[in-house]
Amino acid sequence: MSSILTVTLNPTVDLFCEAEAVRPVRKIRTSGARHDPGGGGINVARVILALGGDAEAVFLGGGPTGAWLDALLEREGVARHGLPIAGDTRVAYAVHERASGFDYRFVPAGPAVSAREIERVIEIVGSRDAPYVVASGSLPAGAPADSYALMAHIVAERGGRFVLDSSGDGLRVTLQKAPVFLVKPSIGELGQLVGRELDEEGARAAAMKLVDEGAAQMVAVTMGAQGALLATAGGVTRTRAPRVVARSAIGAGDSFLGAMVWALSQNWSVKGAFHLGIAAGAAAVLTPGTRLCLPEDIRSLYPMSPDGNTEREGGID
């Protein structure tokens, strides 16, 4: 039985390439093509596996693209439980424009799912005894708004820890209805949750309010190149991201969460796990396109997180 179970209700096959310039009408020649399994929970499981951890990815997949997704996970050695759906798994596409350094990301909504297809995922969550369950990614069309909340209740009832990384109804309804151990919104997602654009002070206040109201035990707010903050009952910890030469921000949030949950599952201190997450997010920025963080980059960046090398309980093998 894996120590960490991840759930992805709307996964992707992620395609990436580079082009000199993105222009309308004209045919655009590309290079450096790669394809990766994607979706929040799947990416979290990939990061945990890269760090030497033990994770199982539960996901919905359908059609030829669902079979492709499963084959990509097989290639990477990810333990998984794919549940079939009637629709076809979505394919997302990202293009890096060398002339500007910008990434252009095309992300379809994905297939609609039935209530029964979601129920089967919830049944799998109930059948596992993983200490940590990470639900990450958007809710697909057709999924009940309380899908993640139902999972959170199941996990809490057996003494597990439920981790959430979602947006919209997936975030709002779960925090309203269910016990959450750790939630990781971006500052933009947190702003959408509270109904206004947030600066750093506003993010601090909104995160602490969630903790004080009992919506989550910990709230980690990611802020891109500015790093992240962590709100707990003991207050707010704010850490800047290490300075790196960015190649792509794709997957940085998933890398942050995967590393932080892995460290917590290894009994690291909360601050140590938080700092490792920041290092992993920065490491993801070093890799092109849909490629996630590399363990060697995390190791090199982790000491750069303030107090990171003294707050941990354990180490990176």
From TrEMBL:
The keyword Cell inner membrane does not apply. It holds the Pfam family PfkB. Residues 17-296 form the Carbohydrate kinase PfkB domain. InterPro entries: Carboh/pur_kinase_PfkB_CS, PfkB_dom, Ribokinase-like, Tagatose/fructose_Pkinase. PROSITE patterns: PFKB_KINASES_1. Keywords: ATP-binding, Kinase, Nucleotide-binding, Transferase. CDD domains: FruK_PfkB_like. Belongs to the carbohydrate kinase PfkB family. This is Phosphofructokinase.
